[in-house]
Amino acid sequence: MATTGNPSTSFDPARTAVLVIDPVNDFLHEDGAAWEMTKSTVKKNDVVAQLARLADGARAAGVPVLFGPMAYTAEDYADEGLQRRSGVNRLMFENRMFLAGSFGADFHTDIQPQPGDIILAPHKGTDVMRTDLRDHLERLGTEHLVLAGMTANLCVESTGRHATELGYDVTFLSDAIGAESLAAYEASIHVNFPLIGNAVLEVAEFLAAIAPETTGALGVEPGDTVYGSDRGKMGTVEEVVASADGVPGYLVVQRGAILDRQLYVPLDAVTHRTGNAAFVNIPKLVVSKLPWDERPTAEATAAKIGSPASKVDSLYRTHAPTDV
């Protein structure tokens, strides 16, 4: 299971894993059963080349690469009735997608697992966490899961949501992800992913940020540019203030020379740093809804934490959870 604490500002190979979801012919090859649906985003992002680059770069840096494919047998439909479970299962059933042993279920020629990679048992819905993925992550000591592949609003999103709920840090790689439509892709990348995970990066940014964690380093420096989890530019770091006397550490971020507005960004909101770019785990689109326009105080921080469980009479003030 993932551990708690402030996230590293780099992707430590000892604690990071890359999961490539459904890099198979039915999604990525022009002869695949879903190609007419996926080709617009796959071509737009050059997903095949980006996934190959991601896997090669991660391996070279010592980051484990896991593959999460789908494969359906006759028993899945005849015995389990998966075609009745959901719209996506019906779609795959009617179009004979990902049939076990078929061309469509095979890995794309350019994205083949290599010795040392991990190939997961097939997922039968949209959540790869419901396979043996978690067992492998725990064995590897993974705390940060990096997601890429197909498709943005289904398997990638469902897996990211579940991983976050389990306590993993989750990063999505926008240019190594495709979808069945541009609208689905855009909604995932710009609206959902920035709130589900702690960052949306591109492959090059992720690969550049792979490095062993440096104990005690703040990771961010004056002059760095701060970006939200939606890749929106927030401003430039003027000062890095370390924690002291109950006040958490924070960044003083200049939002613009003309407006002369400052943000006070908690250091523990910084998820990682790539070059001179620092990323925080909140979208720029919603940062105005946060109380970051004043320097933090010990009192304000204590108020955000709330009361300890021992001092709470009822979780929902007037009600408690129902006992079974």
Automatic annotation (TrEMBL):
Keywords: Hydrolase
Keyword set includes Acyltransferase: no
Stored Pfam families: Isochorismatase
Stated name of the protein: Nicotinamidase-related amidase
This protein's record includes keyword Hydrolase: yes
Organism, scientific name: Lentzea xinjiangensis
A GO MF label: hydrolase activity
CDD domains: cysteine_hydrolases
PANTHER family, per database record: ISOCHORISMATASE-LIKE DOMAIN-CONTAINING PROTEIN (PTHR43540:SF16), PEROXYUREIDOACRYLATE/UREIDOACRYLATE AMIDOHYDROLASE-RELATED (PTHR43540)
Domain of life where this protein originates: Bacteria
The Isochorismatase-like domain, residue ranges: 16-193
